[in-house]
Amino acid sequence: MGFFDSEIVQHEARNLFQDYQSLMELGGDYGKFDREGKKLFIEKMEEMMDRYRIFMKRFELSDDFMAQMTMKQLQTQLGNFGVTPQQMFDQMNVTLERMKAELEKP
């Protein structure tokens, strides 16, 4: 069975995409959130990024040809912007840490 034939992989991919889309839509109103709403949004983003990192690691470790091609495509796409997948995750973490720091200011 191929990597993408797995119901678990399909389910997680679908959930990740839907959760990401929802968070991005919600994030448009981030400035209107109260402090607790902002904290919750940041927590949800961190959780989603952790799930995405695990999902990407599955691609990376898989022997499946299509999974390897997907990783190469992602690396190429990110490379066009001058970043690696790890740099993408690192930058997102920096952004979330800045958002947290902003919440701590009086």
Task: Give a quick account of the main beta sheet: strands, pairing sense, barrel closure.
Answer: none
> Percent of residues in helical segments?
over 70%
The pLDDT mean sits at 92
End-to-end C-alpha gap: 55 Å
Polypeptide structure, described:
The chain has 106 residues and is an all-alpha fold. The chain has one domain. Helix content is 78%, strand content 0%. Helix 2 packs across helix 3 (65-79) and helix 2 packs antiparallel against helix 4. The relative contact order is 0.11.
Question: What is the topology?
Answer:
Blueprint: H1 7-27, H2 35-61, H3 65-79, H4 85-104
Keywords:
4 helices; 106 residues; 78% helix
Please outline what is shown here.
The chain has 106 residues and is an all-alpha fold. It contains four helices and no strands.
